[in-house]
Design brief:
106 residues, mainly beta, five-stranded mixed sheet, 10 strands, 0% helix
């Protein structure tokens, strides 16, 4: 897990796979990412290109030290499901915000 110094801007790239295969986000509905640290949750902006989710983090978003968990929830069209939608949720402990440069990764 990457350690980032408190106060820095950075980009996080997250490859989403299902069964070892890149997730197909064609026609995705209701996609949302929530970042949480110590139980405090925030919805955050992101973009998706292919199966890569790109999130630009700022000190406003990461305003506390600790391990940040990201949760991506989304719905895909799927005619094999009774309501024609496949609801999906994935999460990751993505990075840790640390208070000092000496504790951060290069």
């Amino acid at each position: 897990m990457k350690r980032i110094r408190f106060g820095n801007d950075f980009v996080f790239l997250w490859a989403i796979e299902r069964g070892g295969v890149a997730e197909d986000f064609t026609g995705v509905l209701d996609a949302k990412i929530t970042a949480s640290v110590f139980g405090v949750k925030k919805d955050i902006p992101f973009t998706i290109n292919g199966n890569i989710v790109k999130i630009e983090f700022t000190p406003v978003i990461c305003n506390s030290t600790g391990v940040y968990n990201l949760e991506l929830s989304y719905t895909l069209p799927d005619i094999t499901m009774s309501d024609d939608d496949r609801k999906c949720v994935v999460d990751v402990d993505a990075f840790q915000i640390v208070p000092r440069s000496a504790q951060a990764d290069d």
